[in-house]
Design a protein that fits this description.
Order of helices and strands: EEHEEEHEHEEEEEEH
Mean pLDDT: 88
Strand content: 35-45%
Number of helices: 4
Largest sheet: 6 strands, antiparallel, barrel
Length: about 170
Amino acid sequence: MIKQEEVYRIGRIGKPHGVNGEVFFYFDDDIFDRVDADYLVLDMDGILVPFYMDEYRFRKGSVALVRFCDIDTMERAAELTNREVYFPRELAGQEDEAPTLLFLVGFDIVDSSTGRHIGTITGVDDTTANVLFELNDGSLIPASDDLILNIDTEKEEIIMDLPDGLLTLQS
């Protein structure tokens, strides 16, 4: 059984495309194309299920058309509509490049000067020039390379050198 901590969200499935089982896949991370992966993980009513890909092709921007094995009709494809799509962290770790910030969702942030646990990353806000980590308590922390001292993928922990007063600004 696949556990939530073993994967991270990379997008969602849209509506079917055509009658042969293809679906629109709206992705935030194209890791599935950069790493040799045969499958994506879909959330099927709270159960994480691997779906093996027959083929995919990029459409425009962050949209691809995907056909999964054994999904060969529009009706079967419609059952996947609006399902969240995840990627295995283990496979993402095999990438030659540095992982994307979405890979860090679920990691804990620790302040280097105090050793204090600041929060757990629940999302990444990249809608502005300054990318921010969204934490479980609703606060935002800059996701700047200048502040990140160490990323421990084993412990799922990020050690950050946070400027004095940053945490009190959000109280």
